[in-house]
Amino acid sequence: AGGLLILGAPGAGKTTLLLELARSLLDRAEEDDTHPIPVVFNLSPWGTPTDQTSRNHFLVSRRTRPALGEWLIEELNRRYDVPWKLAQEWVTTEEILPLLDGLDEVAAKHREACAEMIDNYRSEHGLLPMAVCSRTNHYESLSRRLRMPGAVVVQPLTRVEVEEYLERGDERLANIREALVRDPTLWEL
């Protein structure tokens, strides 16, 4: 529906779910080249200064709270080694589908501004499809809610679900089953 908010407790599997979504979206994009390419971005560095030298025409690195489009371009260039002009073209022409992980990992003093920046970007880009992950408690502490048409809350697995999974693993998971019997504190992990 154009946007998805993924919430959950620490370790619930939000990032894993986001990566599974990325894989499905990549399959879709391979079949139909009109679909944007999903790219996972970790939001934690947003709002913190970078050491990168700014481009003459695009002063991003010196700003600590850039607009999302500018930040996506910089992250594509810095994290994925996408040439600057190509990254700029992809973002400008909406050829990427941002999958934003870790809204809760943005510094607390910048988290509200980051949420506002995400909504502004979606508004400016015709509500471009994207997904955002956050811990539930951090998201609920925000004074504003992201304008996303869909949301899921990842629930922790039950002990029965884990046991059933381990049993289906046959001998490949025998050592893990044995370790859980020997050391019940491993269940917490």
Walk me through the topology.
Blueprint: E1 3-8, H1 14-31, E2 37-42, H2 68-80, H3 84-92, E3 96-101, H4 108-124, E4 130-135, H5 136-140, E5 150-154, H6 159-168, H7 174-182
Parallel strand pairs: 1-4, 1-5, 2-3, 3-4
Helix pairs in contact: 2-3
Main β-sheet description: 5 strands, parallel
How many helices does DSSP assign?
A: 7
Q: What is the averaged pLDDT score?
A: 88
- Structural class call reads alpha/beta
Q: Could you name the ranges where pLDDT drops below 50 across 5 or more consecutive residues? A: 53-62
Distance between the termini: 34 Å
Give the spatial strand order of the biggest sheet: 2-3-4-1-5
Please give the number of β-strands. Answer: 5
Descriptive tags:
single chain, 189 residues, five-stranded parallel beta sheet, 5 strands
Walk me through what this model shows.
The chain has 189 residues and is of the alpha/beta class. Helices cover 43% and strands 15% of the residues. It has 7 helices and 5 strands, in the order E-H-E-H-H-E-H-E-H-E-H-H. Strands 2-3-4-1-5 form a 5-stranded parallel beta sheet. Helix 4 (108-124) links the parallel strand 3 and strand 4. The longest helix is centred in the N-terminal third of the chain and has 18 residues, at 14-31. The chain is globular, with a radius of gyration of 19 Å. The chain starts with a strand and ends in a 7-residue tail after the last helix. The relative contact order is 0.20.
